Amino acid sequence: MSIPDDTVLGVTRDSPAQWAAKPLYSLSDQAFEHFRKFLLDTSGITLSDQKKTMVVARLSRRLRDHNLTCFNEYIELISSGALPNERQVVLNLLTTNETYFFREPMHFQYLAERILPEHQTSRPLRIWSAASSSGEEAYSIAMLLADKLGNNPWEVFGSDISTRVLEKARSGHYRMERIDGIPQEYLKRFCLKGTGEYADTLLIDRSLRERVSFQEINLMQPIQGIGQFDVIFLRNVLIYFDTKTKGQVVARMLPLLKPGGYFIIGHSESLKGINDDLKPVAPTIYRKPLSNSK
Q1: How far apart are CA 10 and CA 116, in angstroms?
Q2: Shortest CA distance to 37 belongs to which of 81, 87, 85, 84?
Q3: Spatial distance between the Cα atoms of 220 and 39, rounded to a whole number of angstroms
Q4: CA–CA gap between residue 29 and residue 235 (Å, rounded)
Q5: Cut 0.85: pTM above it
Q6: What does the DSSP assignment read for the chain?
Q7: Is 14 designated active site?
Q8: For position 1, what pLDDT does the model report?
């Protein structure tokens, strides 16, 4: 199989050993506040004081790439506009979150046993993975739909604020250590095992990749042109927002959920005190009423 080189921002990924050999930079409280405000204003994500080490680890490489000696120089470089794409680079690096195939399997069980049997197969089923990261969630949904719906029409749409992880998602190329959650049957049907230089990797089968699309979307901004969905997955995202921002994000997404549609969040999240329009039907699973009645 042909798989593109795994790169980050046009540079081949360093190994952990290489990272360990390279010193990190000191981040002042003032500089940390700059990045914290940037991330909050851009994505709505609040960085706690404990995330300072993460900011240093994820951005130090950019200082080395630009031959800078400190974070203040990096901030000045970004502010000057000399590198117009660097703000997106920072956003990509600071918003990448851990994900894996068939995470929180109860949601996939509910989708298979409760939601799909209700669906009228005469029209396409549309599911939105609204924080798809590197694509594992979107492809997990797609495997389940391909199995349960067969040739009936369906579509999986994935989105994320990070252009970096979206490129990874579109490739459908993953390391083998990330496949533990995939059922053996699905591994055989929907995944190709890498050989030679691609050993220890897998590629999602083209027939499945072609039914999953990805697009950059910032949930803090108006969302247009993507239609409505039967199911929206917004899992393990709200935990990064304050209460006000959570309400704004959910309110912005609700018009994109069809009446009777399902809204699924992460197991550590809740919509209590955030939104009363969606009605709980199972732990962390909500449904939009068929009418305006509450």
Answers
A1: 41
A2: 87
A3: 11
A4: 31
A5: no
A6: ------EETTEEPPPHHHHHTSPPPP--HHHHHHHHHHHHHHH-PPPPGGGHHHHHHHHHHHHHHTT-SSHHHHHHHHHHTSSTTHHHHHHHHHS-----TT-SHHHHHHIIIIIHHHS-TTS-EEEEETT-TTSHHHHHHHHHHHHHHTTS-EEEEEEES-HHHHHHHHHTEEEGGG-TTS-HHHHHHHEEE--GGGTTEEEE-HHHHTTEEEEE--TTS---SS--EEEEEE-S-GGGS-HHHHHHHHHHHGGGEEEEEEEEE-TT---TTT-SSSEEEETTEEE--SSS--
A7: no
A8: 42
Among 36, 61, 62, 160, the one annotated catalytic: 160
- What are 138-194's pLDDT values in tens digits? 999 999 999 999 888 999 999 999 998 999 999 999 999 888 899 999 999 999 999
Which residue in the list 6, 58, 189, 205 is annotated as catalytic?
Answer: 58
Catalytic residue flag (residue 164): no
Contact (CB, 8 A) for 200 and 163: no
Residue 256 scores a pLDDT above 50: yes
The percentage of residues in the chain with a pLDDT greater than 90, rounded to a whole number, is 63
